[in-house]
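Here's my example:
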Amino acid sequence: MMSFAVDETLGLVAALLSVKAVPGARRDEVAGLLGDRLKVRVSQPPEDGKANAAICALLARELGVKRAAVSVVRGVASPEKVIRVQGVSAEMVRSRWG
């Protein structure tokens, strides 16, 4: 079961996803579940926020939302991250990966 929460601050719905980041991979991909987290591989290196930006862009593409709707809320300098996806329901995330 993937770990997530719904953030309804300011009356907006957003999913909070627990992510295990793997920067420097051969290709960008959501590798699936790793325990209660989503394992995300990106080719960008973990420097100057490049891997974080690649993770957000990949998740936005996979979930069909704008890039601006996805942000890292915890774990900016860590492989263990919490990603906020604005405008996505928990059911949508579960149906995609959970």
In short: The helical segments are 50-63, 90-97. The first strand starts at residue 4 and ends at 7. The mean pLDDT is 88.
